[in-house]
Amino acid sequence: MSILGKAALAMWWDMSISNRSEFEDWHTHEHFPERLGVHGFRRASRWMGADGSEGVFVMYELADHEVLGSAAYAARLNSPTPWSTKLMPEHRNMVRSQCRVLESAGFVTTRYALTIRVSPSTGGLDPLRAAIGRLADDVPRRRGLAGLHMLRHETPPIAPTTEQRIRGNADQTADCVVIATGYELELLQTLSDGELGEQSLVRMGAASGTVRGLYSLSCSATPGDIA
After folding, report:
1. Where residue 97 falls among pLDDT bands split at 50, 70, 90?
2. How far apart are CA 167 and CA 84, in angstroms?
3. Does domain 7-226 have CATH number 3.50.50.60?
4. What pLDDT is recorded for position 158?
5. Surface-to-core class of residue 51, CB atoms within 10 Å of its CB (0-12 exposed, 13-18 middle, 19+ buried)
6. Which of 109, 111, 159, 175 would you call most buried, defined as having the most Cβ atoms within 10 angstroms of its Cβ?
7. pTM (2 d.p.)
8. Among 207, 214, 133, residue whose Cα is nearest residue 175
9. Separation of alpha carbons 212 and 192, rounded Å
């Protein structure tokens, strides 16, 4: 399993271009070290919209799903720093999925990432997972591509936090997340239009109405990088 653990926290939001420089400074030099200091956080990665848009995609790879309900993590969420308190309201349209890893093959931290937020149709989760698993046997070996992963949201036992309150709106969630990674943007787009296209996913067991985006890697770190 290439994701470093059995769980992952996947997040999307919009950050205005005018605030991007300070945001990346804070996120790299304060927020990543803070999160990676929590036991069970194994890798933090940030991607920005590949087309230069306001979109941000962040994923934390976790030892297990219990990390998301741990006292140590809750303490971080309820004690934001002054810099975090300043920038949290700039996180617009937050989607925050606290996930178990269902499938993972190949690399995670490559130049580009395609993310697809999807809900299974009634009775469709197992067929969808099986279909993504079959693709994961092949996609990471293709030219220009490097990994394929599937996550499933499960709400942990944790009360609403100070950080959520500062952001001002209730976080949305994605039921399932499919992530494809690679180093050629055009080939990820081809995958998004074809085998992972809307109609293909519906045939696999997904409900219609997927949300997808292409992102370029900005920063990735493990606890050893910030020790």
Report:
1. very high
2. 10
3. no
4. 86
5. exposed
6. 109
7. 0.96
8. 207
9. 8
